[in-house]
């Protein structure tokens, strides 16, 4: 066939472009040191590379989470160790104040440092990491505790029944006594707070001097006015107190109150059981209660039976951990003909118990949403492991706390403070303010209450109170050290997780390199050969293209 100049030109251009393309591809590989730079180089290999890169990104995120968790837990560890150091000093001071060899002036001197230690403890309980409170549960944007005034009393009955709110603040403990202004009630006898003959006296200097206060009752609430103390107490209802000797302030046969420092926990907790909301048909006719572990996510449970089903029949159901986007199906609660309730299990150990509230029939499509009350902040440190980085402060330091779901006051607001049950002080019938603190295990772990009472008793020269508070302080420090150990355990988990993640990253990088990285020796050889090929094509083409008809005319 006839070979035209156009055909020759097209073939030469094609050969030149092909050679140049191969040379450029090799040049790119030499520049990137990668055997695969685009999907067309190796479609299967590129898929594997993308999978390994995705895994590496996940491992990088785990490493970042571990680093963040180490910061949170390291801050908590340091704060708790400082707390333990302060408690060691507080025990030294309390041991001195508890002995009979020191007088009221010595105890007053000790009280100054004791109050300072208390304030330092509040500061440490409000420690933060990168601006986030580490002891406030989910409420990381504000301090976990605030310093308040609280009460201790030597009257068990009064402490059990009086509901109150302390207002204002004072730099010293305010000691309050009640007496009968008419003299009709014997010392130790009962009088109501609303009794117009109830007299009040108080001291702000440890009982050296006394001032007159007053009790005003209106609309079922009483206000204890202590004008020069900077504080007052509102009692939400009437209560009974025991009267003291109107002429002798040292006799402790009546009701005494110590208005002294404490700390209120304003973070959140995990104490309450999960809340369950019913949706769909039959709302209100079935009572639902959740228990067990649901982690931090809401759980939706759906009844999947095709027709109405009784609780003593097989119940088919599904559950979702992401708001209904994905469902875990095929779950069955086996029939129990003798049961009056049914139990549905979900992942992570959670249980939903259904009982009749007018009906024992479940209808198709009926749903129950479980909303756990959580305070933990968990970070993923592997595909199957999480570590909690924060803490619930009240479970470590104690303090004053009221459940946010507690009963409302008469004015519709939640009472921020409660009764004296947690920190009552009893007297032993002696004549020298001989007091003992309730021997309650939970109270002895309440660090802020124990320290608040130590401040109160050193400021009011109460040797016996200091002695009992010292015993409680030992238990409170043990509780703090248990918290240190628990935080340290989580830190150790992070160290192990970090080692595991580093090993996984190295393995993934090795696998990725075996697929993606080029053999430099082979690449350089191919590049040199392709360069020679391209130069040969250029040379031969230039020689042949000169042989045309114009050369012979």
Task: Tell me about this structure.
With 553 residues, this protein is of the alpha+beta class. It has 3 domains: 5-33 and 518-552; 103-269 and 395-475, no CATH class; 275-372. 39% of the residues lie in helices and 24% in strands. It has 9 helices and 26 strands. The strands form 8 sheets. It has an 8-stranded antiparallel beta sheet with strand order 3-12-5-7-8-9-10-4. Strand 19 and strand 20 (350-356) form a beta hairpin. Helix 2 (43-97) runs antiparallel to helix 8 (463-516). The longest helix is centred in the N-terminal third of the chain and has 55 residues, at 43-97. The chain is elongated, with a radius of gyration of 38 Å. Residues 407-440 have low confidence and may be disordered.
């Amino acid at each position: 066939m006839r070979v035209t100049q156009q055909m020759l030109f097209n073939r030469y251009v094609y050969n030149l472009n092909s050679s140049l393309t191969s040379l450029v591809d090799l040049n790119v590989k030499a520049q990137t040191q990668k055997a695969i730079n685009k999907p067309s180089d190796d479609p299967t290999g590129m898929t594997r590379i993308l999978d390994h890169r995705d895994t590496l990104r996940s491992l990088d995120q785990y490493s970042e989470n571990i680093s963040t968790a180490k910061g949170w837990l390291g801050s908590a560890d340091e704060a708790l160790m400082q707390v333990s150091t302060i408690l060691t000093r507080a025990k030294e001071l309390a041991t001195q104040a508890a002995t009979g060899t020191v007088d009221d002036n010595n105890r007053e001197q000790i009280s100054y440092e004791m109050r300072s230690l208390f304030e330092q403890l509040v500061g440490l309980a409000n420690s933060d990491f990168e601006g986030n409170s580490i002891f406030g549960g989910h409420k990381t944007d504000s301090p976990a505790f605030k310093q308040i005034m609280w009460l201790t009393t030597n009257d068990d009955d009064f402490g059990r029944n009086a509901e109150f709110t302390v207002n204002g603040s004072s730099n010293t403990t305010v000691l309050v006594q009640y007496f009968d202004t008419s003299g009709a009630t014997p010392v130790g006898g009962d009088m109501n707070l609303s009794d117009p003959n109830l007299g009040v006296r108080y001291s702000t200097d440890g009982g050296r001097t006394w001032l007159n206060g007053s009790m005003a009752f209106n609309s079922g609430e009483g206000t204890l006015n202590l004008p020069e103390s900077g504080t007052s107490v509102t009692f939400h209802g009437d209560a009974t107190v025991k009267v003291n000797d109107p002429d002798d302030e040292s006799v402790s046969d009546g009701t005494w109150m110590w208005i002294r420092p404490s700390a209120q926990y304003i973070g959140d907790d995990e104490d309450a059981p999960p809340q369950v909301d019913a949706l769909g048909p039959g709302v209100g006719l079935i009572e639902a209660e959740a228990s067990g572990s649901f982690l931090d996510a809401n759980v939706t449970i759906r009844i999947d039976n095709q027709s109405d089903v009784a609780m003593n029949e097989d119940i088919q159901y599904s559950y979702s951990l992401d708001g209904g986007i994905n469902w875990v199906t095929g779950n069955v609660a086996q029939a129990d003909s003798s049961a009056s309730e049914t139990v549905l299990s979900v992942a992570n150990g959670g249980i939903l118990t259904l009982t009749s509230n007018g009906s024992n029939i479940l209808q198709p499509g009926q749903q129950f949403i479980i909303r756990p009350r959580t305070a933990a902040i968990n970070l993923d440190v592997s595909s199957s492991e999480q570590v909690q980085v924060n803490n619930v402060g009240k479970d470590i330091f104690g303090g004053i706390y009221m459940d946010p779901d507690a009963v409302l006051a008469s004015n519709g607001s939640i009472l921020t403070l409660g009764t004296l049950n947690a920190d009552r002080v009893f007297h032993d019938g002696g004549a020298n303010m001989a007091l003992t603190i309730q021997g309650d295990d939970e109270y002895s772990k309440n660090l802020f209450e124990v320290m608040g009472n130590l401040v109160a008793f050193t400021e009011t020269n109460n040797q016996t109170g200091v002695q009992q508070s010292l015993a409680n302080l030992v238990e409170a420090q043990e509780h703090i050290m248990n918290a240190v150990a628990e935080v340290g355990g989580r830190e150790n988990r992070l160290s192990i997780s970090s080692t595991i993640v580093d090993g996984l990253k190295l393995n993934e990088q090795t696998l990725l390199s075996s697929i993606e990285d080029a053999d430099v020796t082979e690449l350089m050889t191919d590049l040199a050969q392709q360069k020679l090929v391209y130069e040969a094509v250029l040379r031969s083409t230039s020689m042949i293209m000169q042989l045309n008809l114009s050369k012979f005319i």
